[in-house]
Amino acid sequence: MSYVENLLKIFVSSTIINNIILIQFLGLCSYIGLTDSLTNSIGMSFAVIFVTVSSSILAWMIDNWILIPTGLQPALQITAFILVIGSFVGLVEIYIKKASPNLYKAMGIYLPLIATNCLILGATFINSMNKYDFVESIVSGFGIAFGYAIAMLLLAGIRERLRNSDVPSFFKGKAIAFMISGILSLAFLGFSGMIK
Amino acid sequence: MKKLKIIWDAIIPNNPVLIISIGLCSTIAVSNSVQSALLMTFAFALVQIPSNVIVSSIRKITPNEIRVPIFVTVIAAFTTIAALISEAYFNAIYQIIKLYILLVVVNCIIIGRAEAYAYHNGIFDSFLDGVGNTIGYGLVLLAIAIVREFIGKGSLAGIQLMPDSYQPMLLMVLPPAGFIMIGILTGAIETYLRNKEGKR
């Protein structure tokens, strides 16, 4: 199998087959909390794509250049990743605020939410567990974030329609969002086995 | 009696998963078998209780501005310990739910308790609050896991209970059922709270 084929396989697998929200259940807080409106979920998706790809790169460098050569990976990986990603998100926030106030207005409120989002950290752990190389890590990070965006937009679109429909009183509020996610998850389960 | 109330408050009236609805990721992900749920609760206890105690004991010397990075560092240290212990003694189950044990470090319940309770209260009270939250989290996890594993595999904690003729409903151990179970539970709790408010 050629290298490009392998990259494509990683992308499809992390976007659709192992969709981070619907199959692996990471980042549910923002998934349920922000899908009330389509605009919010688009903004959040872009912020997540940007931060996930950059932290995948950063985490790969820390893992392969510092933690593995010094043999500290089992003991310090969690601490190193969370501190680096936390401070990186903080830096990005400051930079965007200074460099492009318009982008900050569009993206700014979501950045602090991302720092504690388990999806970003989860993506870096997935990369490290599968021992991906540099390019593979970027592709996998982008794929995971793209899968997140797909799930966010799907649920946000459905929830916009739901506003005008008659939901049984038992399921009003968050419960119906969970039930819909269950059905969406069932649909995504159909993709499993697509790649051996 | 007053001390017991701290534990009780965290189990039922302020249950982290059902009432405040935080920490959902791991709840849904590891609740497809009783063994995973038990290991997850064990790892959660190893992080939640000591981190509450440490955060509470250093609360007087923690500067207010950088308290969150300090909490995260403390929690990360205990998560590493919990992950290494789980890997050493329960390796078979650990390999299945490894990702979720590593991600205890960003579990909203633990950071939330450090910020909202341990940072303002005494060491012993924080210890009790940690115990209560662990029980509250573990009970929900275990309740969902028992239902899902029993219907989905006909067994509990790996021990076959139903006869061979039982046709297991495989869907229950697959991801969608996690969402559906949480949806039904949330619906039940919200309906209960609405009715209670209506009566008042």
Automatic annotation (TrEMBL), chain A:
TM stretches of this protein: 16-34, 41-62, 74-96, 108-126, 138-156, 176-195
Top-level class of the enzyme under EC nomenclature: translocase
Primary location group: membrane
Nucleus found in the keyword field: no
Subcellular localization, as worded in the UniProt entry: Cell membrane; Endomembrane system
Enzyme Commission number(s): 7.-.-.-
Pfam families tied to this protein: Rnf-Nqr (PF02508)
Entry membrane topology: Multi-pass membrane protein
GO biological process: electron transport chain
UniProt entry keywords in alphabetical sequence: Cell membrane, Electron transport, Membrane, Translocase, Transmembrane, Transmembrane helix, Transport
Single GO cellular component term: plasma membrane
Annotated function: Part of a membrane-bound complex that couples electron transfer with translocation of ions across the membrane.
Quaternary structure (record): The complex is composed of six subunits: RnfA, RnfB, RnfC, RnfD, RnfE and RnfG.
Family: Belongs to the NqrDE/RnfAE family.
Name of the protein: Ion-translocating oxidoreductase complex subunit A
Species of provenance: Caldisericum exile
Automatic annotation (TrEMBL), chain B:
Highest taxon of the lineage: Bacteria
Keyword Transmembrane helix belongs to the record: yes
Keyword annotations from UniProtKB, A to Z: Membrane, Translocase, Transmembrane, Transmembrane helix, Transport
Protein's UniProt name: Electron transport complex subunit RsxE
Pfam families: Rnf-Nqr (PF02508)
InterPro entries on file: NqrDE/RnfAE
Record organism: Caldisericum exile
GO terms under cellular component: endomembrane system; plasma membrane
Location in or out of the cell: Endomembrane system
Main location: membrane
Membrane topology: Multi-pass membrane protein
NCBIfam families listed in its UniProt record: PRK12405.1
TM spans (from-to): 12-31, 37-56, 68-86, 92-111, 131-151, 171-193
PANTHER family: ELECTRON TRANSPORT COMPLEX PROTEIN RNFE, ION-TRANSLOCATING OXIDOREDUCTASE COMPLEX SUBUNIT E
